[in-house]
Structures are given as structure tokens and as C-alpha cells.
Amino acid sequence: MPSPKVSEITVEFYGMPRARAGRKEIHVSAATIGEALAAIVEACPALKDLRQPDGRLAPHYLLSVDGEPFVVDTTQALKAGDRLLLLWADVGG
Amino acid sequence: MCGYHGRYLRIDVSSGKAEWLPLPESVLRRFIGGVGLGTWLLHHEGPIEVDPLTPEAALIFCFSPFVGTSLTTSAKFAVVAKSPLTFRLNDALSSSHFALAGKRTGADALVLVGACAKPSVLVIEDGTVHLEPADELWGQPIDEATQQLGKRFGPDHHGAVIGPAGEHCVRYATISHANRHAGRGGLGAVMGSKRLKAVMVAGRQHIAVADPAGVAVAARDLSKRSFGPATAKYRELGTVANLLTFNRLHALPTRNFQAGQFAEAEALSGESLNEARRVARNSCAACTIGCEHIYRGADGEVRLEYESLFALGPLCGIGDKDVVLRAAKLCDRLGLDTISAGATVAFAMECAERGLLKNDDLRFGNGDMLLSLLPRIARREDELGNLLAEGTRRAAQRIGGDASDFAPHVKGLELPGYEPRTLQTMALGFAVGSRGADHNRSGAYEADFSTHADRLHGSDASAALAVDTEDRAALIDSLILCKFLRGVFSDLYAESADLLRHVTGWDVSADELRATARRIVTAKKLYNLREGWTAAEDTLPGRFLSEGLPLGAAGENKLPRERLQSMIAAYYAARGWSMTGQVPDDLIERLELEDVVVAQRA
């Protein structure tokens, strides 16, 4: 199976992720969700708890591609122009 | 008995006569306290088919076994009555020193019936009761009345107070203590109909816990966990941070639920408010979270939560944060539920824009109109204020035409800030909720904001998620702990059983508490059934089932009527109820609810 192609994507931050990152959005290059997570941590060290030791998304975060159902599969491929939404899991209240 | 006094105080405020009545352990263990115990009491103390604004109706203040312990967020109380807005069971929570002092009166609950001949203050001191005149307080906003009551009674007394909205029996009036409100369903109107401006409590009757060392260890552990990521949002940003997230997900109710995104959301966002206006952060008594974020407005400082922000902002098409802050402060002072107030004004704005109401100024985005309407509603000052004081369901019936299709309520209770077409597990929670459209008794949005559900396409699988969140809420609201703490529990039932065991000495288990939660939810349903509930009430307004919600380039998202009906049927099945939502006799027996049904038949 061919490796997914590296694409330019935009990461939007909401709630606690925005407060910690100190910005509304960043642009990163990534082929998969997992690579995007790594790129986010590198660009925003305040989000160092974003990933669990095995690379999965930490339980107090949520991820969605363009507002679609929330994703946890770090191997999911991304495509150019995707907008990855990073939320705090405790939405609502 | 540990954790409880084992009795409640029934007060007829017509005469001032008070009577102690026992609360046996068999009742307390089945219903715990707070909302659960309040439900049991309402079954026994509330006359069948009573008009909630007549003297015969009961107004119940309920404490819990955890009140007065060192467990974080436990200084809470429930207020339970038949709602003048929904004519169904209504329970609302508030917190802080009223709970602590109320339990120190020696009662696990206060049941108020009757009505005073003139405006009064009910004073309960260590179990003795008297009434004092409240003539000079009647008509005053809550903050001013609270200040005067503080001067009159001193720091040992704590009050639950109504504002002008309660006095005028506005059907969504609140009861306030320390600027936190038992907000939903019009409990302030029930208190106002009894001509009670305030209930003041004081006492020195402390109660023992079964295992003081165990409670201390558990309290330290819970406090420590309350500083973790599960509560970070509430502590650092407040619930106002929801606004931008919801907006991005097309879940922010806008212009009376005509859209799920608001063009001015960024300017009104929690982030913007926190940067420009936040001046302080407070907490309730006995709380380590500290979720109250205070903002600077033109009329002084005001506490703001997401629900007030959405209802007085985007729902009314208003993007001016000064208007929203002023409106929120007005609601707090007048004693208006911000959700129902904002929703009723937004509904009226749409009626006017459609020509169903004749008023050229009543338009989305008109902040001056919102600010002028709130006092008129609270005091029922004129024809429009009086109409809107009735809430959206009754207002729609009077306005006529197709107004009922877009009146945003379930069972009469206005929807909170969650768009049901893009949060479809929450849509089910709204439809079946015992007190109407409600995000506190059903936190089904948690499933929508997770990987467990497809929030855009509800299904029969949503039923189990909705049941689970209702059950968890029933337990938390009966213990009582703050729901903002819910994320710190890895196993709510097992950990709650440990806490309850330390406090009461009962050999309670997680499975027992699961059954308790189901019992409480079904007891609420049984109350509604006795008051005339039919399955036709478990639905959403026509708009949500016939109009798609615009999603921009992605088209629109729909919640077809058939899908919701199928989800509701699955929910009834998951609860063990019949296809028409009735509670079978064998389930009543299994849940040990026979005494509730006997009270009902008596």
C-alpha cells in the first residue's frame, strides 16, 4: 500500500487548545492524523500533552476533519486543504 | 443515622405552622437526596393536578448527605416543584452557603405549602420557624434585596431570594442565592405565588459522618483531581469558551434556531470576553474548581456563562458584548432565567419579522429592544411584556398562525444552546426530558462531542447513550455534586458508592447506585404521568423536524421526524417502558417505586 502523500493542512484551535497554543490556527505539512499531531506539538510546545506515549490523541482532546465525526485513527490520511479542528474533549456544560 | 437528620420540615406559610416529618432510611437510601429525594417528596406532598401557582402547590428545598462534608462541590441544594412553565416536574440546583446553613437547621428538606397574606420573609433558625414582613423588599431587585436581608439578619443567615419576576409570577422566574440561580422552569414564580420574597436559614445542627477519616482521604483525593484537565476549561476559560466551538460545528443556535452559525461569533466569543473584560474568578462555597468568571460591563460586574451568552446574544441576533453583559446582569437582578428570557425574546423577534406580531422595533439584532423588554417582562408591565412573561409555548398559542412550529421549547421549557439538528443525541435527550428541553438532566451532547456517536445522524443507538447520560445526571444531582466534576470520575458509580459509604455507613455498591439512578429517572416520569403526560409531548418543535439546518458549502443537515420517533421508541425500550412511554407494573416493582404509585393513587 503506497504511503499517504504529505499535504498542507490547516489546524484550527478551539477552547483550551487555543488558549494553550496562543493562536487561532497554524498550517502544517502532514500525510496522516498522527503526523499532524506531531507537527502541532512541534509548532506549539504548550500542547505537549496532546499525544499519549504511543502517539494516540490524549483523552482530553477531540479532533475532527472539517467538522465531520470525531476521529481517533492516527493513520487516517489527510489531503491538501483539509482543516483539522482541535477541541477540548469537555465541550458543553 | 449518618449523613442525614432523618426528617424534613413541612411549613404552611399561610399560618406559619411547621411540622417535622420523618424520612426513614428506606426512603433516603432509595432516593439519596437533592433531586431524587425532592422527587419522592413531590409525589407525596404535591396534590395531583394542582396549579403550581396556587397555595396548595408544594415548593421543596432539598439538601443531601454530602452537604456539610469536606467533599469538593458538595455545598449544593435542589429546588423541586411542579413547574408553572411546563406543568411537569421541575428540579433546579443552586449552591453555596444556603445549602450549608439550610442543612444545619436540622432538616434534610424544607417543604413549603400555602401562601402568605402579604409579602413575607420565611425565617428558619435551628428548626424554629417564623414569618416576617417583606413589604420594603417587595419590588426590589435580587442584589439589593439580598444586601438588605444581610443587614437585617447578619452573616449567619443565608437566603434564597426572588426578584420582581418571581413576584409577578413570570413563568421562568428564578430563585437566587449568592448570585447563583435555581434557574429553570419558573420555581421563582412558585415562590412568588406564596408571597415569599426570601427564605432565610441558619442553624448549628451538624451531623456526623460514618467514617470521618475515609471522608477526609476521599475529599483530599477528589480535590486534587478537581485541579486536573477534566475541569481545566471551567477553571481557566469558563463555559463561554463553548461559543466559538459550537459556532464552528454549526451547533450555535442563532436567530431563534434559524441558523447554526453567527457571523459575529468571534467578536462575542469567550476568548474575546476573557481578553477584554474578565476581572475576576470566583467559586461556590466548598468548591475547588472556581468556574465563575466575572466580566466588566457597562452596568458593573457580571457573571456570564455560555447559556446566557448564547441566549442573549446569537439567539437574538445580537453581537454586541456590552448589550449581552447588560442583559445578563438585568436577568440576574430581575430573577429571570436567561435561557428562557433570551429564547422568548428571540421567538418574539421572529414573530414580528414574519408579521405575526405588530412591532417595528422587535427585530433580530436590536439590543435596545432586548434591554427594554426584560424589565417589562419581569414586571408584566405592558401587553407585550405580559405576553412574553408566559414563555414561548403559551405566547405561541395566543399569537396563533404557525407560531407554534418555531416556538423553541419542549414541554414548555425553552431549548438551551445546543442545536438539535447537528447534535442529534442531544435532540433525543431534549425530546424525552422530564422537565423539557434541558442540558443539565440530559447531557447527551457529551455523546455528540465524542467518537461514540455521529452527531449529524442520530440512530437507535443514540438511545443507550441518552439513557446513560440521564442516569449519571440523576445520580450526581441527588448526591449532590457539581456536574463540572463529572469528568474526574473514571467510574462514577463505583466512586460514588465509596463516597456514600464513607458518609452514611451504608454498604452501598455501584450496582445499587445504577438502580438508584434508574429509579429516580422513572420516578420523575411517574410524576409526569400522573399529571397528564402523553407520548405526544416527547418531541421537538416542528421547525427542527421539517427544516434543514444550513451547513454552508456542505448543504444542510436534517433531523427527519421518523428518525426522531424511532430514536424515542428505542429510548423507551432501553428504559423498560412501553411503546407509548408508560411504566409497566413489574418495572415499578423492580425499581421499588410502589410507595410512589400508592401516593399517586391516594
Write a compact overview of the structure shown.
The complex is a heterodimer of chains A (93) and B (602). With 93 residues, chain A is of the alpha+beta class.
- What is the number of E strands of chain A? 4
Largest sheet of chain A: 4 strands, mixed
Spatial extent as radius of gyration of chain B: 22 Å
Structure class of chain B: alpha+beta
Low-confidence stretches of chain A: none
Q: What's the CATH class label of chain A? A: Alpha Beta
* Helix content percent band of chain B: 40-55%
- Classified by CATH, the class of the largest domain in chain B is Alpha Beta
Q: In whole angstroms, how far apart are the ends of chain A?
A: 43 Å
| Multimer state | heterodimer
Largest interface: A-B, 23 and 34 residues
Shape assignment of chain B: globular
Task: List the helices and strands of chain A in order.
Answer: EHEHEE
Structural class from helices and strands of chain A?
A: alpha+beta
CATH topology of chain A: Ubiquitin-like (UB roll)
Count helical runs of chain A: 2
Percent strand of chain B? 5-15%
How is the CATH topology of the largest domain in chain B named? Aldehyde Ferredoxin Oxidoreductase,  A, domain 1
